[in-house]
Specification:
heterodimer, A: 97 residues, Histone, subunit A, two-stranded antiparallel ribbon, 3 strands, B: 490 residues, alpha+beta, Arc Repressor Mutant, subunit A, 3 domains, 15 helices, elongated
């Protein structure tokens, strides 16, 4: 698969990242190298092997939690590391919809 | 040109579990911001989700009630996007292998006439595409001030509350059908005990996909998603508005672009969201932190055996078992609270018709005035049943019963206690009643004459006179009996 500049810019936009022009070129080249590396996997013959979603088997009874509420974080601890907070809320840049 | 609308609904249902879907934080609402949070639902590094078994059980219950096939294996997936109410940068949802698929439900619907009533009533089957589980996001509060502080505030108490997403096929052709489907769905989840069905408070949320096409065309028109529909009425109004708007654009030669629009109740119109739609690419992939979910036969059987009677079955039973009319049966089967109250009252008084009448008239009006729900009602089914029994055995008249009811409702006292307290008691004493009757018969010789000459309608006149004289306290059955004897004596 060939990676071009537009692919990198699209992914940067989805990841909310912005780069300078030179960096885009660098990433395009690096993305290409990574994909070429991963494409090695395509050489493996997977005929007759069902696709799998997970490396461990499906959930058994032990994989669940019972529906009981446990103690949550102390409120001060929950917001302690937030760079911006007020009235117990986390502050974020204004969202306009 | 004649156009037809094609509508599909995506409904989010908040499950009534005690704890969140992937952590033990409480799902209780109304507490101070960020008090029901932990590393898992705050998306802190290293925290791992563990699935709440009860949430799955509730999801299976809903899937079965919607006639779906429950997949033996479903897979949680990460849906990636950035929004401040989503702390991990992805929502754990289901994608390629949802919990349940290919359902269908039969809904009582019809067409809305120009004056607003429902005509051409019929039953129509709507198909369900899929039902999947996911986690809710936090809540954003937008700074109302315009001081340029430029911030929004996030409360993660709701983050991680279990949700079901129920996606219909595009089977609705009118806002009325969408309304009836949504209201059927709401009733169903309430009956199943998996959701409180509160649209205003967001425990049930609905998005509508609306498009129009020339009638008879196969190809679908451009799909517009409409959000912010937090009541059944808004849903109906928004779809109606959107259909008309789209028809207008097309018939004037314009083109529609696929977009998301919000319903604005104040302006009674929809407007386009300013978000960049092209930036959406969720990059779904299986959630590596959760193993595939396997629902075996035993679990399925366990849920199947605990399925409650669903609203439509109850409705049909109310009609056949209690002889209720369609209107009464609809009202009384509207919620499990009402239906249970009704059945408990009938069990007490053995008078299905009277129990229905009392609930639909007196009880409804008292609840409405007091702003209470039936679950908060101080007149319990045994007490209403007792009141009805007192009328049926002739101990009090219907009129007195009605006069007692508001006090029963406001004080929670039983009918006999209030009767005793007020000194109101029925006059059943034959001697006393006979004396009153003789006086009345003696005072109206002309009417007695006409009655005996065959004007039998006058009987009611005499009953009325007796009731007037006894201030409505006479036992009506006794009055009938004694009056009949007295008038036919000669």
């Amino acid at each position: 698969m060939k990676v071009n500049k537009e692919d990198v810019l699209k992914i940067a936009q989805l990841a909310k990242l912005s780069f300078g022009e030179n960096e885009v070129d660098t990433f395009t080249e690096q993305f290409q190298r990574m994909l070429t590396y991963v494409e090695t996997l395509n050489k493996v013959d997977t005929t007759g092997v069902p696709p799998t979603a997970h490396v461990v088997p499906a959930a058994d009874e032990g994989a669940f939690r019972l529906d009981a509420s446990t103690t949550s974080l102390a409120h001060e601890d929950a917001v302690a590391m937030a760079p911006d907070q007020c009235g117990g809320h986390f502050g974020v840049p204004k969202i306009i919809d | 040109m004649d156009y037809e609308a094609v509508i599909g609904l995506e409904v989010h249902v908040q499950l009534l579990t005690k704890s969140k879907i992937f952590c033990g934080c409480s799902t209780t609402f109304g507490g101070p911001a960020n008090t029901n949070v932990c590393p898992v639902c705050l998306g802190l590094p290293g925290a791992l989700p563990v699935l709440n078994r009860e949430a799955v059980t509730m999801a299976i219950r809903a899937g079965l009630a919607l006639g779906c096939r429950i997949n033996p294996q479903s897979i949680f997936a990460r849906k990636n996007y950035f929004y401040p109410d989503l702390p991990k940068g992805y929502q754990i949802s289901m994608y390629e292998q949802p919990l349940a698929q290919a359902g269908r439900i039969e809904v009582r619907t019809g067409e809305r006439s120009e004056v607003g009533n429902i005509v051409n009533r019929k039953r129509k089957t709507f198909r369900i595409d899929r039902v999947h589980m996911e986690e809710d996001a936090g809540k954003l509060i937008h700074d109302g001030s315009h001081d340029g502080s430029g911030r929004s505030w996030v409360d993660f108490n709701r983050s991680g509350v279990p949700l079901l997403e129920i996606v219909s096929e595009p089977d609705f052709r009118s806002s009325q059908e969408a309304y009836d489907y949504m209201s059927h769905l709401r009733k169903t989840v309430i009956y199943l005990g998996v959701c409180d069905g509160n649209l205003e408070e967001g425990s049930m949320r609905c998005d509508a996909n609306v498009s129009v096409r020339p009638r008879g065309a196969d190809k679908l028109g451009t799909k517009i998603e409409v959000k912010n529909l937090n009541s059944l009425r808004f849903l109906q109004k928004a779809i109606d508005y959107e259909i008309q708007r789209q028809i207008k654009v097309i018939s004037e030669g314009g083109t529609l672009t696929q977009e998301t629009r919000l319903w604005d109740e104040e302006r009674s119109s929809t407007f386009a969201m300013r978000s960049k739609e092209e930036a959406h690419d969720y990059r779904y992939f299986p959630e590596p932190d959760l193993r595939p979910l396997e629902i075996n036969e035993a679990w399925l059987a366990e849920v199947q055996s605990s399925m409650p009677e669903l609203p439509d079955t109850k409705y049909a039973r109310f009609v056949s078992e209690y002889g209720l009319g369609e209107g009464d049966a609809t009202l009384l089967s509207a919620s499990p609270d009402w239906a249970d109250y009704y059945e408990a009252t009938v069990a007490e008084c053995r008078n299905a018709k009277a129990a229905a009448n009392w609930m639909i008239t007196e009880l409804t009006s008292e609840l409405k005035n007091a702003g209470k729900t039936i679950a908060e009602c101080s007149v319990t089914p045994p007490r209403l049943g007792e009141l009805i029994r007192l009328i049926d055995t002739g101990e009090i008249s219907g009129k007195i019963a009605k006069s007692l009811f508001p006090e029963m409702f406001s004080t929670g006292a039983t009918a006999p206690v209030i009767l005793c307290r007020k000194g109101v008691s029925q006059i059943s004493d034959e001697g006393e009643l006979s004396r009153v009757i003789e006086e009345i018969v003696g005072a109206h010789p002309a009417q007695v004459e006409s009655f005996r000459a065959g004007k039998s309608k006058l009987f009611g006149f005499f009953v009325g006179e007796v009731m007037k004289r006894t201030k409505g306290q006479a036992n009506p059955q006794k009055v009938n009996e004694l009056l009949k004897n007295s008038l036919e004596k000669f």
